[in-house]
Specification:
This protein folds into 3 domains: 314 residues, Glycosyl hydrolase domain, family 43 (Tachylectin-2, Chain A, 5 Propeller); 85 residues, no CATH class; 71 residues, no CATH class. Helices cover 20% and strands 34% of the residues. The strands form 7 sheets. The chain has a 6-stranded antiparallel beta sheet. Strands 21, 22, 23, 24, 25 and 30 form a 6-stranded antiparallel beta sheet that branches. Strands 1, 26, 27, 28 and 29 form a 5-stranded antiparallel beta sheet that branches.
């Protein structure tokens, strides 16, 4: 830190750009909202001869089988979703089952509108990486038709000389399977219901006979038993809240033989139906040295937002968790990469305007928040927020911030927090680190540069960032240079 004349840090923009690709498509169930249409569509297929059905199915496979792995498995899954409307199931051929499934299937181009708001973390597998290099995983927000956002991934290596080498990207994109065989924690589930003010006699009746760890199927069986017993009146709202919470806290699994660039976390629960936004990934070290990847993100249902947490160790299996408490409001939460003084710590933007910090003894519950930074410079007068999880250095926690100024222009700044008391800002940049240049100003949302998470490698701060909410790029700056250009805060 320099108390004399402050210089601007030397930022280098890489030539690499991550651009949307309209050819990357997933499949989704295409089931009419008007369920009365479903049996009519099925009946039209059933009236076809076997030869006619075989010709149509052959043409569908010819046109689409090279765009999706195991496409007939997809058709069969979607057939099963409407099979209750099939009369004489025992007589239907596999050809017609697959064809019915095809009619209730559609493609969705996950990144046709934009590929932006990246974050970056070290890859869990550093095998065979050359000395001085680092394999990474980059997450990005992909947006398609209807502005529905999902999470996609890229991998690559940062070489010892600072060069970026992205791995070849697969042409396929796949969504995961929901896992109902994973276990919920009864005590934690009850705490969340109580935090929602949704605990009553019906809730107690459901949980009193559930084991300490229970599956979704066990929960459904217990609810069904309670409804059928007629021993006590059942509160329908309580049952609704229980299922809502279970639906919002779930588990997904990708195929191990699918490349990580094929994996897309697409909205699953009702809370996410309009998008999964701005995942901020962090490489978290527990007290025992165990590493877990967490990502805070915003679930959007088209009306309200709800903060969520992704948990994974291998980027194959993910747990999705609701964050609870009066302090987890609004967007832009970023978890510190370790506990501080025995507590989890997280940045937030509780009121949509200022930077806050929160401390909690439990990762899922956040009750109190404290303002640590208010807009002070012209380029941030409208609002402040973070650009991902803090990065630890010997001199303090580096936090990249975003500020919104006149004409809704976004810039990226930086502050330095005290290592032991991160509620204290000890230094900050007086001017933005990154402001949109002419190339970066045009896009879906003009005049924006924004990041959801950076990393430090070989004393270089690696900043993946979005350009006007449409394309992503990478910038770098020396850590020592950055800190030296910060002004100490009194």
């Amino acid at each position: 830190m320099n108390e004399g004349t402050l210089k601007k840090p030397s930022v280098k923009r890489k030539k690499t750009k991550l651009v949307r690709d309209t050819s990357r498509v997933i499949t989704r169930a295409h089931i009419p909202v008007n369920i009365g249409r479903i049996p009519k569509i099925i009946d039209r297929v059933m009236k076809m001869t076997e030869d006619e059905a075989a010709v149509v199915l052959h043409n569908v496979n010819f046109n689409f089988s090279d765009r999706h792995k195991k496409i007939e498995n997809i058709f069969m899954d979607n057939y099963n979703k409407v099979s209750e409307y099939v009369i004489h199931k025992e007589k239907i051929s596999s050809t017609k089952k697959l064809l019915i499934g095809a009619y209730f299937t559609m493609e969705y181009s996950v990144e046709s509108a934009a590929l932006f708001n990246p974050s970056i973390v070290p890859h869990p597998d550093q095998t065979d990486v050359a000395a001085g290099g680092l394999r990474f995983i980059m997450s990005l927000r992909a947006t398609g038709e209807g502005h529905i956002s999902s999470i996609v991934f890229r991998t690559g290596t940062i070489m010892s000389n600072g060069a970026f080498l992205f791995d070849p990207r697969s042409d396929f994109v796949e969504t995961p399977k929901i896992r109902h065989d994973e276990f919920y924690d009864r005590h934690l589930f009850q705490l969340k219901l109580k935090d929602m003010n949704a605990w009553n006699g019906t809730s107690a009746g459901v949980f009193e006979q559930l084991p300490e760890r229970f599956t979704f199927d066990e929960l459904k069986t217990r609810v069904t038993g309670l409804l059928q017993s007629h021993k006590h009146p059942v509160n329908d709202e309580a049952i609704k809240n229980i299922y809502w919470l279970a639906d919002s806290n779930y588990f997904i699994k990708f195929e191990a033989d699918h490349d990580i660039s094929e994996r897309v976390i697409f909205p699953v629960s009702e809370n996410e139906r309009s998008g999964i936004e701005d995942a901020r990934f962090v490489w978290f070290f527990d007290d025992n040295g165990e590493v877990t990847y967490y990502a805070t993100y915003t679930a959007y249902n088209g009306v309200t937002i709800l903060p969520h947490l992704l948990v994974t160790k291998d980027f194959l299996n993910f747990e999705i968790i609701t964050l609870n408490g009066k302090a987890v409001q609004n967007k832009g939460m970023a978890l510190f990469p370790r506990k501080i003084n025995g507590k989890y710590v997280m940045l937030s933007r509780l009121d949509g305007e200022n930077n806050y910090i929160m401390f909690s003894e439990h990762l899922h519950f956040w009750q109190e928040a404290k303002i640590i930074q208010e807009p002070a410079k012209p380029w941030e007068f409208m609002q402040l927020g973070n650009c991902g999880s803090p990065l630890e250095t010997s001199e303090g926690w580096i936090v990249l911030t975003h500020g919104v100024g006149a004409m809704r222009q976004y810039s990226i700044g930086a502050i330095l927090l005290d290592l032991e008391d991160p509620s204290k800002i000890i230094a900050r940049l007086e001017e933005p680190l990154l402001t949109p240049n002419e190339e970066e100003r045009e896009g879906y949302v003009p005049n924006v540069v924004y990041s959801c998470g950076s990393l430090i490698h070989n004393n270089i701060l690696i900043i993946p960032y979005a350009m006007s909410d449409i394309t992503s790029a990478i910038a770098t700056v020396g850590v020592r240079d950055l800190i030296a250009c910060m002004k100490p805060c009194r």
